[in-house]
Amino acid sequence: MHPEQLQQLRDQLLALKEQLLLAQEWAKSGTKPVELDQTRVGRLSRVDALQAQAMSVASSRRRAIELQRIEAALSRIEQDEYGICTSCGEDIDLKRLQFDPTAFLCIDCARRSERST
Questions:
Q1: What is the pTM of this model?
Q2: DSSP string of 62-113?
Q3: Homologous superfamily of 3-116 in CATH?
Q4: Strand partners, 91
Q5: What's the half-sphere exposure (Cβ side, CA atoms, 13 Å) at 76?
Q6: 91 and 61 in contact (C-beta within 8 Å)?
Q7: Residue 77 class from Cβ within 10 Å (0-12 exposed, 13-18 middle, 19+ buried)?
Q8: Where do the domains of the chain lie?
Q9: Using CA atoms, how far apart are residues 7 and 79, in angstroms rounded to an integer?
Q10: Is residue 104 a contact partner of residue 72, using CB atoms and an 8 Å limit?
Q11: Could you report the average pLDDT of every consecutive run of 10 residues in the chain (117 residues)?
Q12: Residues 65, 79: Cα–Cα separation, whole Å
């Protein structure tokens, strides 16, 4: 992989990280405990508020996982291991990395991994 391609992917990872951190900050209000005061909820029932809270918590978990994947990819860049499949050691196709810069498996290993689960 050329240094400029690697830099583009690193920039893409950093932009994704920034977006996720902003979304995480914005969504913090959605994970606050649901209050019992029905007058503050308005037309929403408490069940609706609890469901919205659960969805917010699930989204927060997904963001945390994605942030971990981004950090792992950035770490692989720093260690000169980025773009190499962690399973078979082969190069990961550039198009795959451009589509998902957090990818750590080549397409063949990813398919095998999906079949085994």
A1: 0.78
A2: HHHHHHHHHHHHHHHHHTT-TTB-TTT-PBPPHHHHHH-TT--S-HHHHHHH
A3: DksA, coiled-coil domain (1.20.120.910)
A4: 84
A5: 23
A6: no
A7: middle
A8: 3-116
A9: 14
A10: yes
A11: 95 96 78 55 67 84 96 97 97 97 97 89
A12: 21
Q: What share of the chain is helix, strand, coil (3-state, %, to 5)?
A: 70, 0, 30
Contacts for 69-74: CB closer than 8 Å, 24+ residues apart = 69/102, 69/104, 70/13, 70/16, 70/17, 70/20, 70/101, 70/102, 71/17, 72/102, 72/104, 73/13, 73/101, 73/102, 73/104, 74/10, 74/13, 74/14, 74/17
